[in-house]
Design brief:
Helix content: 25-40%
Number of helices: 12
Structural class: alpha+beta
Order of helices and strands: EEHHEEEHHHEEHEEHHHEEHHEEH
Length: about 290
């Protein structure tokens, strides 16, 4: 099952457990960012992978947006998702343009640094919650788990497996989201962590399972599994030609006038999905 969240309750309904093989989703987003550095792909992949599972907690018109800011605040990574499983994510321009000399000599821990932080906005347009936490673990997934503990007072474990080859290309990606429900024993989180870390062969092959045999396998790994359903996730940007035409209103009029005088079009691009939009002479004249 690829790009599908498997939603369950385990341990006699004490724990909410989601899992996913999101290799296709993460690979699509990494390719859109046109980045080949393994560290930056790891940073983006782990962030988007976690958010793809967080989408399984949403309902109705809710969405979740996550921003991770490194200790050097000019470096940021973004990801968001809605209740329909539409997911997107990207590195900001400063990270995409970072010098090879710098990025090739630092680890993820060093890039995040001791002042990194996570900012989460969650909810609907009419009712949003914003939380900001530090990143004591400096490894993305443990830090997002830390966010839930600090901001939502909910014991949570998020685990991700990302396999990258030597040129930074994605081989596989899967993830797990476990959250204790009210009254649950805290030690259950450690049991889930142990199961996740000692059954990598199963989690790395999630994409090969269907509904019948994945349910059978999960019943072998966890106690009292109750299946709650399946939810697909997919990349969706939401940009449009109309949106970027509106953005042209913010361009200096002299730039538009110059393009008209040279009989040139103006081209803009979406940082998230890489689509480009070109606007012709008549469209530019209408802006003046």
């Amino acid at each position: 099952m690829k790009n599908v969240i498997v939603k369950t309750l385990i341990y006699d309904k004490q724990v909410r457990l989601f899992l996913i093989d999101n290799t296709e989703l993460i690979n699509n987003i990494i390719n859109l960012n046109k980045e080949t550095n393994s560290l930056l792909n790891l940073l983006l992949g782990k962030t988007v992978s976690a958010v793809s599972l967080m989408s399984g907690t949403l309902k109705g018109d809710q969405r979740v947006s996550l921003q991770i800011t490194m200790s050097d605040p000019k470096y940021k990574v973004f990801a968001d998702a809605d209740a329909k499983g539409n997911v997107r994510g990207y590195l900001n321009k400063e990270l995409l343009n970072v010098s090879p000399e710098f990025i090739n000599r630092v680890s993820l821990d060093q890039l995040i640094g001791h002042k990194g932080n996570i900012r989460v906005i969650k909810g609907s347009d009419m009712n949003q919650f914003t939380g900001i936490t530090d990143m004591p673990y400096r490894n993305i997934t443990d830090d997002i788990s830390h966010y839930f503990i600090q901001s939502e007072q909910t014991q949570t474990f998020i685990g991700t497996n990302l396999g990258l080859d030597s040129d930074g290309s994605l081989i596989c990606s899967n993830a797990i989201f476990a959250q204790l429900l009210p009254g649950a024993s805290v030690h259950l989180i450690n049991e889930i962590k142990h199961t996740f870390s000692t059954n990598s062969d199963f989690f790395n092959s999630l994409g090969k399972y269907n509904e019948n045999n994945i349910e059978e396998k999960l019943n072998e790994l966890f106690k009292d599994v109750k299946f709650m359903g399946y939810r697909p996730v997919q990349f969706f940007c939401g940009c449009s030609r109309e949106m970027f035409y509106g953005i042209l209103h913010s361009i200096n009029k002299s730039e538009i006038t110059e393009a008209i005088s040279k009989k040139e079009s103006i081209e803009t691009g979406c940082q998230i999905c890489g689509r480009t939009y070109s606007f012709n002479q008549s469209e530019l004249q209408a802006l003046l």
